[in-house]
Amino acid sequence: MDDGMNPAPWQTANQTEYGHRTADRQESETEQVQGNIPPGREDSGERQGEPRPAGKKKKRRKKRKKSKNYLLRIFIVLAVAAAIVGVLHVDYFTVAEVTVTGNEYMTQEQVLKGTKIKTGRNIFDVHVLWEEHRIKSKKYVDDVDVSRELPDRIIVSVTEKKGMAQFKHGTKYVVTDNDGNALEVVKNPRNITLVNGVSLKSVTAGKKVEASGNADLGKVYKLLAAMDDGDLYFKSVTLENGRVTAYIYDELKVVGSYGNLMDSIKSETLKTVVYDLYQKGKNKGTIKVSGGNYCSFTE
After folding, report:
1. Of 43, 173, 200, 297, which has the fewest beta carbons less than 10 angstroms from its beta carbon?
2. What span, in angstroms and rounded, lies between the C-alpha atoms of 264 and 269?
3. Can you spell out the DSSP letters for 175-231?
């Protein structure tokens, strides 16, 4: 018996044999585990029996938090919108007054007819662009602006098409704008220039009038436009064979060729003569216009 207590040969052999058996068994188990891994997942790290990484759970939690925050934001936006709508639709913003300005030919009722502008409605339910479109479609309206004056007033500012001339048509009068478009047919004459000696063909509201015969409507409208720009007013005009007779008052008239009269208006010579006669209190007689902007007056 050895005093150093060296292991006996059988012990060493058994231990070595045991160790070999353990290694062989581990290799066998490893092969069995690998054999159970589905194809394509050998290198994925997701082996059977291994726990999933904690990072994936954290990502799922983050996604849930994001979806909850998104829903919360939508809820807040809807709640705020509902609160705003509720505040804007209180009685404080009910239309109590509608004011129409700039209307000379049309009444307020005619301007607002066919619109949804009226008292008793919520002021924010009045869609200004839609109402402007409705009003602008009227034959007398050239432009319009609809505005809100909080808390309860709607203002409609109208620019009407200007009646420039009127023509006798049967027993009635046809009123036209400065482009020759028929604005209306009325029984009684308006306070605008009456064009004599011109017969009109059939008249359609909103469309250009046409003259029968040899009447030159183009020259008529150019003369009336010059009159308006020159701060003059003719009660009536007759254009025949290139000569013009224009009445300023019932008994004060201007006569001359079309060209000479246009020159005297543009140079303001005629305006000066008319103003001088007005200052002197003369409202009867004839102003004769010749070439070179020469004017003479006879009673």
Report:
1. 43
2. 5
3. EE-TT-BEEEEESS--SSEEEES--B----TTSB--BSTT--HHHHHHHHHHHHHTT
Are 161 and 139 in contact by the 8 Å Cβ rule? The answer is: yes
pLDDT tens, position by position, 151-208: 999 999 999 988 899 999 999 999 999 889 998 899 999 899 999 999 998 788 878 9
189 preceded by cis ω (within 30°)? no
Structural tokens at position 250:
């019932």
212: phi then psi, degrees, rounded to nearest 5: -90, 155
What is the pTM (predicted TM-score) of this model? 0.60
- Only one residue has tokens 């829903």, namely 71
The model's pLDDT over 89-108, given as tens digits with 9 standing for 90+, comes to 667 889 999 999 999 878 99
C-alpha–C-alpha distance, residues 271 and 265, integer Å: 7
Strand (E) or helix (H) holding 50: none
